[in-house]
Amino acid sequence: MRLVFAENEPHLKPNPRRDHMSGVPELAYSTLDRHGGRVLAPGQVVRTAGRSAPVGTIYRYDRLLVDESVINDEAALRRLEGAIRPSGMTIESQPASTLVPGQGSYRVPVVSAHGDHAGVDAWSLLQRLRTDTSEESLPVELLDKVRLEHLMICSKGGIGIGGGETPAGGPRAASLGRVPVDMVNPMPSRRRLDRRLRVAVLDTGVPNRHPAFDVSDRSEDEDTFVVVDHAFQVKLGEHSDSPAIPLDDPWEGPVHEPTLIGEVASHFGHGTFITGLLRQLSPDVQVYSLRVIHNDGLAYEHDVIGALHHLADQIEAARGGDAEAYAVDVVVLAMGYVDENPHDEPGGWIGDAVNRLAALGIPVVAAAGNQSSDRPFYPAAFAAHEPLANAAPIVSVGALNPNLEIAMFSNEGPWVSCYATGAGLVSTYPCEAEGSREPERRSKSSVRNRFRESYDFDDFSSGFAVWSGTSFAAPVAAAYLLNAIAESGVEEVQDSVKAAERAHAALARLKSR
């Protein structure tokens, strides 16, 4: 079995010697700018007197997340705006947005009160609010309801992680990254079932067509392997507020890096690869694909929170008798972030969203990250937090090499639940992907309509690729969990406690093998 569990239950262990920038991915300036991102480097930022220094993270510098209780309370909102005013910045509460009702947080733009956009910084604003001693200063309970919006990362950097740039040095070096291959084994057959276990994949989406799986929209109510949701994507697009292309469709392709070189975008096909792993390992399930990650591998915390609450809303509606609701049984997350809290105690709303699903009996399987760090990577590291009573497990997944050793790029620590194969995996990839790299040599062939040529490292017309990352270890682990759940039946469980018990029993069976 390509799944290895940690010796102890996931837990947090302080590491005061850890570098403050450990686990923070290195992103190009152009990538950060595309998403309004900024790196919080502890040695270079404003810090609050009397508080522990923050640790590194990546956040959106012109956005804050504000609790809905503040937005909906005119007196509290006016007080917040009054406290912000002396900073030279202001918040625009009118366009504040939330993806689904009741998700807890609103995303609020931060702008300059004097037209000086260079002076806008959400982190600096939060520090000013925390050190304010004037009559307009905010109480702690209100301050705790205003937080950064983090940029969430998937498969970015690290040995064995495919990016848009193939390493130099010939075929051996190129094999470290994302490489096209052909699949000679047929996909496993898919049985006809009255009901299927459903797994939600929040990622970069899937193409409309692929030889390995079929796709339909949720409104069509068809028994395809993948179900997408145009209505959800339209709503997500309506709430887009960055220079990046909005995620208003279940698929966008082909996508290249934003230069004239014509390289395939670094994370184009990421969700397709995850879907193919599930197709190989759990052919009888159905994948619910929600596109929340851009093709450069970045997602917005607020969007992910909204998508998780959307899933929870659908589960509750289905259990309440709504025949059109779409309830899933497992959730897979391949993205995450490191929190600036130096004590590994992140606040905010993403933990609430994950816990809401767990309380409904839905296990959440999340990638542990690819930064070769022991720093907790969220939401995966919620596996190490005190669980809710009668809740389904949260499973954090690191990556194994094919020889079952821990992959060099994988995060590792006491907060990781298990490790699954995540290096050198073969799975589906968009057939339309083709970059500007050409074979080193090409000559005429005596075979009609064919050429002789050396390997083309970015022609993915075969529809399959080799890739690596904890992003892919997570769906492998999820597939094992889904198969174990199916052993006790695939009937829809209406009771949250019984659903959680089913998930824990399946996990226990896996641990005993």
TrEMBL record:
Residues 8-21 have a biased composition (Basic and acidic residues). It holds the Pfam family Peptidase_S8. InterPro entries: Peptidase_S8/S53_dom (IPR000209), Peptidase_S8/S53_dom_sf (IPR036852), Peptidase_S8_Ser-AS (IPR023828), Peptidase_S8_subtilisin-like (IPR050131), Peptidase_S8_subtilisin-rel (IPR015500). GO terms for molecular function: serine-type endopeptidase activity. Gene3D superfamilies: Peptidase S8/S53 domain. Residues 1-23 are annotated as: Disordered. Keywords: Hydrolase, Protease, Serine protease. Coiled coil: none annotated. The active site is at 203 (charge relay system), 270 (charge relay system), 471 (charge relay system). Belongs to the peptidase S8 family. This is Subtilase family protein. It comes from Glycomyces sambucus.
